[in-house]
Amino acid sequence: MIDSLKALIIGDVVGHAGCRALFVNLNDLKKRRQADIVIANGENASDGKGISVKDLEGLFKSGVDVVTSGNHIWQKKEILPLLDSEERLLRPDNYPAGVPGKGRSITACKGVQVAVCNLMGRVHLPDLRCPFRTARELVAHLKKETPIVIIDFHAESSQEKEALGLYLDGSVSALVGTHTHIQTADERILPQGTAYITDIGMTGPAVSVIGMDIDTAIRRQQTQMPLKMNVADTSAQICGVSVEIDVKSGKATKIERICEVSAL
Question: What is the residue range of 180's domain?
Fold first, then answer.
């Protein structure tokens, strides 16, 4: 069994550019970062909203071990059955009881059990169950199985993300934010040993407005009309973080931001 686990956590994969960037580059990135497990948020993988069965399979083939999501997971109806049957695909755990899917998984990795959780914020997003109460109950359950718990908190508000990170400090190995597609520069190990960053950024078109076509995004702001947004057709970037975790304690020892131009 390994003493230290290295997790590579990839930010929101956007469109064909993001999927292609991982297909071409992820294997090399895993080797360079010596990653033991790869987690990626895939809710924007197909045309910028939702994820198709084909794109989900593509992420797994690229080397992703667990795919998390957020508010767009419901966009592609074909994926709904897989939310119940595919253990490696998560939707936010704090959706109401009875909806398809689950928000947590435990993956065996080099003799170590790794719990991955998906939660969603409530500021400027659907009014789901309280992520703070949900997280506390979820973590208490998962810690009976493993000390290593990694949370993708898909949320709009920096305040909500930082508050949850500090609320869970010491009880989870890492809490990383997704959703805004803009990587923040506040990565750190919190006082009690939790790796934290407000947003790990986007994996997709580098020259874009959060992954979308620039001209259309500008016209939307100028006209305030609901113009259809399409994924930008430009070279891609890969954003995320690398987190090192002590296997015995579950505490994080290191977190590093990643932002690389795709070798396409």
Answer: 4-205+236-261
Residue 229 lies in a domain: no
What does the pLDDT look like over 58-104, one tens digit per residue? 999 999 999 999 999 999 999 999 999 999 999 999 999 999 999 99
CA nearest to 68, candidates 159, 151, 181, 173: 151
CATH code for position 27: 3.60.21.10
Find the farthest-apart pair of alpha carbons in the chain and give their distance in angstroms, rounded. Answer: 58
Mark whether 181 is an active-site residue.
Answer: no
Statement: the pTM of the whole predicted model exceeds 0.85:
yes
Residue that has been written with the tokens 């015995």 in this structure: 248
pLDDT for position 263? 63
From the list 214, 209, 204, the residue with the least C-alpha distance to 238 is: 204
The DSSP result for 91-125, as a single string, is --TTSPTTSSS-SEEEEEETTEEEEEEEEE--TTS
**How do residues 190-232 score in pLDDT, each as one tens digit?**
999 999 999 999 999 998 888 888 888 999 999 999 888 888 8
Task: Indicate whether 226 belongs to any domain.
Answer: no
Question: Residue 127 and residue 129: Cα distance in Å, rounded?
Answer: 7
- The answer as to whether 67 is a domain residue is yes
Q: Which residue has the tokens 């469109």?
A: 15
Task: Exactly one of 72, 154, 179, 181 is catalytic; name it.
Answer: 72
Does residue 217 lie in a domain region? no
Domain count, the chain: 1
